[in-house]
Specification:
- Residues 1-21 form the signal peptide.
- Keywords: Signal.
- Residues 94-109 have a biased composition (Polar residues).
- With 116 residues, the chain is mainly β.
- It contains 1 helix and 7 strands; from the N terminus they run H-E-E-E-E-E-E-E.
- The strands form 2 sheets. Strands 3-4-5-6-7 form a 5-stranded antiparallel beta sheet, with helices on one face. Strands 1-2 form a two-stranded antiparallel sheet.
- Residues 14-20 have low confidence and may be disordered.
């Protein structure tokens, strides 16, 4: 799962100039951007993802979770840290555990730095 999350975050970095906002996906596919610049990112089975950018598109944040797991993971372009948080309900389930992202590392206030 960590490889998929890392890949997802790297794709977000590469496409960040085209990113606007997204909702917690429910079908395993995240559409990044819009119109002719849109790209679809397919996640693993039971993996949900979300991303957000502010309106000036200068930063972004992204998070993923496995619906059968107990933690969600995320990061932002204005930080080198990957964060994690326990899901309110375990297993994580579906959208009720979606973080409220705004596009910066402040989205992960209260989350734990991975590796600590």
């Amino acid at each position: 799962m960590m490889k998929k999350m890392y890949l997802f975050i790297m794709i977000i970095i590469l496409l960040s100039t085209f990113v606007f906002a997204a909702a917690w996906d429910t079908d395993g596919v995240i559409t990044i951007g819009s119109g002719t610049t849109a790209d679809n990112v397919t996640l693993s089975n039971n993996v949900y993802g979300i991303y957000a950018t502010p309106t000036d598109n200068t930063t972004y944040s992204a998070a993923t979770m496995n619906t059968l797991g107990t933690k969600k993971y995320g990061g932002a372009s204005d930080s080198t840290v990957i964060y994690y948080s326990d899901c309110a309900n375990t297993p994580c389930g579906t959208g009720e555990n979606a973080p409220n992202l705004t596009g910066s590392s402040s989205d992960f206030s209260g989350w734990t730095e991975l590796g600590k």
